[in-house]
Design the sequence.
């Protein structure tokens, strides 16, 4: 793959994460308030793989830092790195990397299962480790109490992991050559 | 794209972005190193004065940006009052508000290109280890250009869905959305390559 294609895919997926956070029509509602943004992070890993997926999300986090309002709800700027929920934002690139790494390792499985397992590992388990650690530090509470605060959001994120799996599988059927994590 | 930079021009807009970022780092370290109530009260009041100096519009704009923190402030206070360490709770809440407000202040008074210039300078030394800074900057510019385009395309897809279905667009609409994004990436990559791409940069 050419360098140009690498860079444009990374940039377009960064824009995709941002767009998923911006478009209200695509916001998924299952009773739990969730945005599609972390779905974008999972998809970066399941579609682009570990390295490029993490780079796309890193670019996203970097652009938020320099002041672009790319986070859902038009949030952004340096303040987002000191709010109590900043652990999730800081964990985004790692979550994408782990998702992509698991996706690449699970080559024997059907795409839908591999993507589902990878998205839960990276986009839920790893992301919540960062998020809960951030909350515990910011609020000066034990990890257990910080974890209680976010349990309400875990079902929503598991649904998003399932959606990431279904979307990745559908994308793989539509464009087998366009899913770099599977080549 | 909407920017988070303040609509009101302040004197701080003219200051060097690097200086403001360094000052922010220093202020944040001091905030987190000082667990004293009197210190945090003075710090929070000073931050409030900084916001008030450019006038009412700036102050309201700034306060609106830290308003989403209120559930955490309430939570911290309830927890710490319930466990009998009220003073520690007030310190944590004030420190959280000051730290976020100061960081927002830098974002509000620094233009995007000034921030980009700082990033460029910080990344400079890494180019020796093979980091292609031009590629990163091009990628950043592409994100800024493509986010609104992708949002429009996503909205168009959602509308097309609603034209054919009585129900709202579901997650399935994300599949064609991503196909669009991947196709766009290929087209742009070809266009870049046709214009010399990154290969030319190696000689420069």
Sequence:
């Amino acid at each position: 793959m050419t360098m140009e294609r690498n860079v444009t895919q990374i940039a377009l997926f960064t824009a995709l994460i941002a767009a998923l956070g911006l478009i209200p029509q695509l916001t998924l509602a299952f009773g739990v308030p969730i945005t599609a943004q972390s779905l974008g992070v999972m998809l970066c890993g399941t579609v682009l793989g570990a390295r490029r997926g993490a780079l796309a999300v890193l670019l996203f986090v970097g652009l938020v830092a320099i002041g672009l309002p790319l986070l859902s709800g038009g949030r952004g700027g340096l303040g987002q790195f000191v709010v109590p929920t900043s652990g999730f934002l800081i964990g985004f690139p790692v979550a994408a990397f782990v998702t992509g790494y698991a996706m690449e390792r699970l080559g024997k499985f059907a795409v839908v299962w591999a993507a589902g397992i990878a998205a839960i590992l990276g986009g839920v388990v790893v992301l919540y480790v960062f998020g809960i650690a951030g909350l515990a530090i910011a609020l000066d509470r034990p990890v257990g109490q910080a974890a209680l605060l976010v349990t309400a959001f875990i079902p929503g994120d598991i649904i998003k992991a399932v959606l990431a799996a279904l979307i990745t599988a559908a994308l793989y059927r539509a464009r087998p050559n366009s899913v770099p994590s599977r080549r | 794209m909407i920017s988070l930079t303040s609509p009101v021009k302040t004197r701080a807009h003219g200051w060097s972005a690097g200086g403001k970022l360094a000052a922010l780092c220093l202020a944040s370290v001091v905030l987190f190193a000082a667990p004293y109530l009197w210190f945090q009260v003075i710090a929070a009041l000073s931050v409030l004065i900084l916001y008030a100096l450019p006038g009412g519009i700036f102050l309201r704009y700034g306060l609106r940006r830290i308003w989403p923190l209120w559930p955490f402030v309430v939570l911290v206070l309830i927890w710490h009052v319930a466990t009998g360490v009220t003073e520690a709770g007030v310190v944590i809440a004030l420190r959280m508000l000051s730290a976020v407000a100061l960081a927002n202040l830098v974002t509000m008074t620094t233009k995007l290109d000034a921030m980009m210039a700082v990033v460029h300078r910080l990344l400079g030394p890494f180019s020796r280890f093979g980091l292609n800074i031009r590629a990163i900057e091009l990628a950043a510019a592409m994100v800024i250009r493509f986010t609104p385009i992708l949002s429009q395309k996503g909205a168009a897809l959602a509308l097309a869905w609603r034209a054919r279905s009585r129900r709202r667009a579901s997650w399935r609409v994300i599949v064609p959305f991503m196909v669009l994004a991947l196709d766009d990436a290929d087209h742009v990559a070809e266009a870049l390559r046709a214009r010399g791409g990154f290969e030319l940069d190696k000689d420069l």
Residues 133-164 of chain B form the longest helix (32 residues).
